Amino acid sequence: MSLLIKNGQVVTATDSFVGDIHCQGETIVALGRDLAVPADATVIDATGKLVFPGFIDPHVHIYLPFMGTYAKDTYDSASRAALVGGTTTLIEMVCPGRAEDPVQAYHQWKAKAEGTSACDFAFHMGVTRFDESTPAAMREIVADGTASFKVFLAYKGALGVDDDELYQTLKLAKELGVIVTAHCENESLVAKLQAELLASGKTGPEWHEPSRPVQVETEGVRHLMTFAELTGAHVYVVHTSCKGAVHAATEARLRGVNAWVETVIPYLVLDDTAAQRGPATGHADFEGAKFVMSPPIRAARHQPFLWDALRSRAVSTVATDHAPFDFQGQKEMGRGDFTKIPNGIPSVEHRIRLLYTHGVATGRIDLNTFVDAASTQAAKLFGLFPRKGTIAVGADADLVVYDPGVEETLSAETHLMATDYDAFEGWRVQGRCEAVTVRGEVMVRDGKFVGQLGHGQFLKRQPTHF
């Protein structure tokens, strides 16, 4: 099987040139100008369009039992949505409860993807408790090809680890060469603030952010950095929402800590007024619940800082923290008590188009930074580069042909995600993923999914963070 993409502006994290890409089977075999067209080739004319490496979302939740319910997407809906949005690789968080066997949970999560996912996939393994059985379980999971962990410094009594467990997890990660991704908030402060707000009758979604203010997140990052410094472990702060948290990680890097920072697309384009939507602001009752995630969406003043940090590469990656719950019947579980609103904003389908529209098209970031933040850095940090994350001879033929001249409106009526609402309902976006390939197979054509479910492969990764 041969594929030739011709005359596109090819953009990687470091380069940009007009040329052709020849793919044979699953692999890129040639780059150049005016490449000969093989007799058996499928040809895509990318004249006037951008050609990017397949994008990687390093932080998604697809199968997720959480807060008394389950996330709505499956790998059927999520992988199709991801591909239409230009994402060819998903890295999902495995989040077992504290009482669950981690190896069984890992294989349960993995089975949800195998044979169904249309795009390639990998996992971060959640460590939600650490006891005498944990090291052997984690070694088995790492040997299977999952070379990153996840810890929560939040959700006390559910997914969160205590300081002893955090220390032991980081020590083991350092020994195994595994990077630890971390949700950083001070869970004790969150619990106190939530209780005080509820006791004073402040129960609506608009009180979610005040219950988890920027100080709580910043302190959580500082806490993680102290443990990383003591153990030598490599750490990656997920869904960073505010200036203080980025500064805490940057200060630690100056001390020699191996730390990287992720933000997510909702923080770059939404502000805290979204969670305040309700009758007082001319919106439907309880609509603010659609925008509840943790850490919360912050005041608009944090956005210019986050864009600047992205441009300077103080923030390495832009992910989604895709956690899809319906408004009706799920988000509504928190009526009368905001702490019971399932956290998350469905966004895996829209990340790339929102980042292009509000980043590249506005001049906040250039095309190379766009590719670096949405693909290359994730590939490098999580053991996938140079197979993924770039356009080069020998790399997987994961490619996105992007037409910047198309404008469309986002809506729940047209999205492929399984939720009954779209957080970006009515938003105009610039550009569309005209064609998307996964290992040489055309999965999206004319902006529509045309691929086969089950084409996606589990990506075995070797530890790279010794």
From TrEMBL:
Naming one, the record's GO cellular component terms include: cytosol
Q: Report keywords, A-Z.
A: Hydrolase, Metal-binding
- Post-translational changes noted in the entry: Carbamylation allows a single lysine to coordinate two divalent metal cations.
Select a single GO molecular function from the record's annotations and give it.
hydrolase activity, acting on carbon-nitrogen (but not peptide) bonds, in cyclic amides
Q: Which InterPro entries match?
A: Amidohydro-rel (IPR006680), Hydantoinase/dihydroPyrase (IPR011778), Metal-dep_hydrolase_composite (IPR011059), Metal_Hydrolase (IPR032466), Metallo-dep_Hydrolases_sf (IPR050378)
Q: Name one Pfam family in it.
A: Amidohydro_1
Q: What is its EC number?
A: 3.5.2.-
Q: Where is the Amidohydrolase-related domain?
A: 50-442
Positions of modified residues (N6-carboxylysine): K150
The record's listing under CDD domains reads: D-HYD
The cofactor required is:
Zn(2+)
Q: Which family does it belong to?
A: Belongs to the metallo-dependent hydrolases superfamily. Hydantoinase/dihydropyrimidinase family.
Name the record gives this protein: D-hydantoinase
